[in-house]
Amino acid sequence: MPPFFKKKKPIKIKSKKQIEKPDEGANVARPIGDSLSHNLELIKQKTGKSTDVIISEFILQTLPEHKAAVIFVEGIADSKNINDFLLESMLNNQAVLEKATQSDTIEFLSEKVLAIAGVKKITDWNDLFLALMAGDTIILVDGSSTGLVASTRGGGEQRSVEEPGSQVTVRGPRDGFTESIRTNTALVRRRIQNPDLWVETMKIGTVTKTDVSIMYIKGIAKEEIVGEVRKRLKSIKIDSILESGYIEQLIEDQALTTFPTLYHTERPDIVAGNILEGRIAIFVNGTPFVLIAPAIFIQFFQSVEDYYGRADIGTALRFLRILIFFISIIAPATYIAGTTFHQEMIPTQLLIAIAAQRETVPFPAYFEALIMEIAFEILREAGVRMPRAVGSAISIVGALVIGQAAVQAGIVSPAMVIVVAITAIANFATPSFPIAISARLIRFIFMIAAATFGFYGIILGILILVVHLCSLRSFGIPYLTPLAPVIPANLGDTVVRLPLWAQKKRPELTTQGHDLRVGEKQKPEPPKNRDMVNKKAKKGD
Amino acid sequence: MKRLLLVFITFTFSLILTGCWSQKELTDLAIISVLGIDLAEDGRLIGTLQIINPGNVAGGMQGGGGTEGPPVTIYTSTGDSVTELSRSASRKISRSLYYAHTNLLVISEDLAKNQDISTILDAIERDAEFRITADVVIARGVKASELVKVLTPIDKIPANKVIKTLKFSEQQWGEFMSTSVQDTIKDLASPGKEPVITGFNLYGDAEEGKKLEGTQATEPVTSLGATGLATIKNGKLLGWLEGEKARGTVWVLDKIKQTAIGIDYKGQKESIIYQVIRQKTKVSGTVQKGKPKITINVAAEGDIGETKVPIDLTDPNVLLSLEKKLDKEIKKEITMAINEAQKNKADIFGFGQSIHRSYPKEWKKLQKEWDSVHFADLEVEVNVEAYIRRTGLRNNPHFK
Questions:
Q1: Number of other CB atoms surrounding residue A517 within 10 Å
Q2: Optimal mutation site among A342, A343, A411, A467, interface B, most CBs of chain B within 10 A
Q3: pLDDT at residue A56 above 50?
Q4: What CATH number has the domain spanning B253-400?
Q5: Of A147, A181, A459, A482, which residue is least crowded by CB atoms under 10 Å?
Q6: How far apart are CA B226 and CA B322, in angstroms?
C-alpha cells in the first residue's frame, strides 16, 4: 500500500469526531453586560465591523438621560420602520420619556414608548445575534443588561409575487411563492383563513441559521406524521440550508431511489390543497419551492387544473399522463426490443419500412438508440444551461445536425429520431419535474434490459420497478397508496378524478379526522319542476 | 453494504454476460414474404423463396437517386423435405431466413395432385417462425415458382397483392375465399370436412413478369388473378369449382359478404341485378331413422343494383316477385355446388361436421362410409329467403 493511503486514515477518524459536535459553544448562554460601550464593542468585534451592521448611538431623554443605541443590519431590516416608529418615538417623545425612572427604562420603553409591534426582551448574546441577523432591530440602553428586539424584518429589495415559472396552468390563481418565507406563509394563510392552520418555525443550519417553517392544519393532519416531520427537521445537523432541496435530501425516508418522496411546488394553491388533505408543508427561507410531506406516487401525475376543470376532462388527462410516463420510460426500449428480438411482433409493412431505414445504419439498434438518447440529453442540458440569447442556436444545431444531417448521412434511422422525439416530448409533458427526471434515468436501464432480453427484459424491468415503488415510503406512508395498499374510499382521486361532490373522504393515511369533505346531496341537478320553461311559453303564445 | 455490492455485481454481470442473447439485427434478416413449393421431376421438392428487398419497397428516403431495383428477390432451392430445402437455401442467401412475415404459401397444382399436401403443411405448422395464419393458394396451370416470380404494380410486394385480392374478392364477389394454413389443416384433420383452396393463375408471359419494366406500363404485362376453388380430398387435389358452383360453395360455407346476382325479367336474361349486402347461411343436420339430412337456410339482404328493362319498382308486388326469383336463383347456385361435391364425393361443406355436432352417436356409425355412401346420397334441403331492402338511389329506371 502506498504511504499516501496510510496517512489518510487517521485524518478521517478525526474529522468524524469533529462533525459530531459542531459549534459546541453556540448554545451556552452568555448574558449581555450592562455597559453600552462594552456591548457595542462586543457586537463590532463579533460582526467583524461589517459595514452593513449599522450601530447608531443617541441620547435617550429620560430623567436622567441615558445613552442608548439601535443596531440593525442594513438591507434586511426595514429602515423605514426603524426611522418612523423606533427612532421617532425614542427621540422626539420627550414628554413621555421624562416620566421614566432609572430602574425600569427598558420596561418603560417597550411598554409605553415604542410604537411598533413585536417587541421582545433579550438578555443573551446568542438571541441578540440571531435576531439581528434575521433583520430585527436591537435596542440597547446603557446601564441595563437587558436589550429590546423590535421586529423590523422584511426590509430591502425583494422579488414581488409573480406567476410561477414551473407548473403553469391555464386556469387557476397566478400567484407564486417568493424567496421570503413570510410572504410565502401569508400566501397560504390567505387561502385557509382558519386559526387551526398552525405554523411552527425553527432555525436550521449551524452557519446559515435558515428559517424553516412547517405548516399544517391541527385536527386534519395526523399527529404522528407532524411529530415525525418535526423530529426529522430537528435532527438535521448541517452547516447550511440554501434551498428546500437540502432539507428534502436530509429528511427523505430512503436515499436509494430515483423517485421523489417529497413533493415540491411554487404554487400556494397546491400547498393549500395538500394541507387540506392532511399533508404538511415545509417552507424554507430563501427559496420559492415549498416541500410537501408525505408525498405519494399518484400525486406527481396530478395537476391543480384537474380540480379546477371538469372531472371527466381531468380523468382523461390523468390517463394521458400515465400513458406519457410509460412512453417516456419504455419507448426506446420497445423500439430496441422490437427491432432486434421480436421482428415477428411488428406488422409486416411497418417492419419493411423500418428495415429499409436501417439498411444503411452501421450500428446495432441498441447502440443507435443509445447514441440518439445521449445526443438528446446533451442538447437538452445545453438548452437549460445556455443563456437565453444563444438558446436559439441550440435548436438550430439540434434540429439540423441531429435531426436531418445524421439521418441523411445514414448514421441513424428516421424511425429512431421519431422514437427519441416522442420520448422527449412525453418526458416534457410529465406534469411533475422530479418524476420526469426520474423517468429519464430509468429509461436507460430499460434500454439495457431490452437490448439484452428483449420484451422479456422490459417486463422484468417493469416488475422490478413496481416492486421498488411498492417498497418506497414517504414519512411511513406507502408510496403507492391508495393503489397499493388499496384504499377504496380514496381511489376517486387517483387514475380517475371523480367530481368534487363524489370525493367524500380525505386521504385516509394522512388525515386523522373521519369527518367528510363535502356534505350530503351535493350533486348538482336541474330544478324538479319545469315551471320556468312552461310559464314563459304560456305568456309568449 | 458488502451484501448490497454483491447483489449489484451479480445483477450487472448477469445482464452483461448474457450478451445480446438471441438477438437478430434487422439487417441480418432475409424477410421471406412467399414460399412457393413445386414438385421436381425426380419427386423432390423445389422451394421458391420470395425475399423482400426493404430498400426498394419503402421508397427512397435515403440513398435516393440510385437505380430502382425490384421490391423482391427470388431464390430457389431443392430438397427432399420442406425443412431441407429451406436450410439448403442458405447457400445462396446472405442473410438468415426469416419466416415470421411469410403470409403466403403457394403450392403448385402438380404437387397438389400427386402428393398429400398434409406433409408440407406439417413442416409449416411445426416451425416456430412460420405463421399458420398465412394464406394458402394453389398455382393453377403454372408452376408455383413462376407465380411467385411475377412482380405486381400496385401492391409492390406480390404476396400482398395475392392476399388482398383474395380478401377483397371474397368480400365483393364471393367466388373465392382466403384459406389459411390453419383452416386447411383443420379441415384436413377433421373427418366430416374437406378443404377448399383458391387457385391462382398467371395471365401473360411468365418471363416478362419477372422484369420491373412489366409493371411500369399502365397495363401490366403479366398479372396474377384468382381462378376457381380447388377441392381437396385426402390431401390431394380432386378438381376445380368454377363460377356459380364456386360461389354456391362459398355461400354454403357462409363466407359470402357481398356479391351480385343477375335474374331474368320479362324474358330478358340477366336483366335485373341484385346486390347482396349481407347474408346469413345456417347449416343444420338431422338424422332420422339412420338417414342423415341437411337443411340449409339462407337469408340474404340486398339492393337493386341495375335494371336493364323498364320496371315498376314502386310496386311491392313486383318486388315480391323479384324476391321469389332471387330465391330460386340463389338456390340454383347452391344446389349446383352441392351436386358437384356429391359427384366428387368430397364433403367440402362440412355437412359431416354438422351431423357430428348434433348427433354424435349416430355420427359414429355414419363416419366410416360418410364420403363414399352417405354424403353422395345425402338429402339436402335448401331454403332461401332473399329480401330487397332498397332499390338504390332511384325508384323506377329513367327509361321506358
A1: 14
A2: A343
A3: yes
A4: 3.30.300.210
A5: A459
A6: 31
Tell me, yes or no, if A409 comes closer than 8 A to chain B by beta carbon. no
Say what the pLDDT of residue A539 is: 54
Matching residue, cell 450500428: A363
A410 in B contact zone (CB under 8 Å): yes
- Enumerate residues 148 to 207 of chain B having a beta carbon within 8 A of any beta carbon in chain A: 157
Residue A211 to residue A290: CA distance in whole angstroms: 13
Cβ(A330)–Cβ(A458) below 8 Å: yes
Residue ranges per structural domain of chain B: 27-57+68-241, 253-400
* Contact assessment for residue A262 and residue A291, using Cβ atoms and an 8 Å cutoff: yes
Instruction: Kindly report, residue by residue over A252-265, the tens digit of the pLDDT.
Output: 998 889 999 999 99
Pairing label, strands B196-203, B135-139: parallel
Q: Give the predicted TM-score (pTM) of the model.
A: 0.84
Residue A474 distance to chain B (closest CA, Å):
22
Phi-psi label, residue A23: left if phi above 0, alpha if psi -120 to 50, beta otherwise: left
Confidence of residue B221 (pLDDT cuts 50, 70, 90): confident
**pLDDT band of A528, cuts 50, 70, 90:** confident
| C-alpha dihedral sign at B238, B244, B246, B249 | negative
- pLDDT tens-digit readout, B328-382: 999 999 999 999 999 988 899 999 999 999 999 889 888 888 888 888 889 999 9
SS3 B136: strand
Q: Which three cell numbers stand for residue A208?
A: 446559515
Whether A154 has a pLDDT exceeding 80, the answer reads no
Cα separation, B206 vs B203, in Å, equals 8
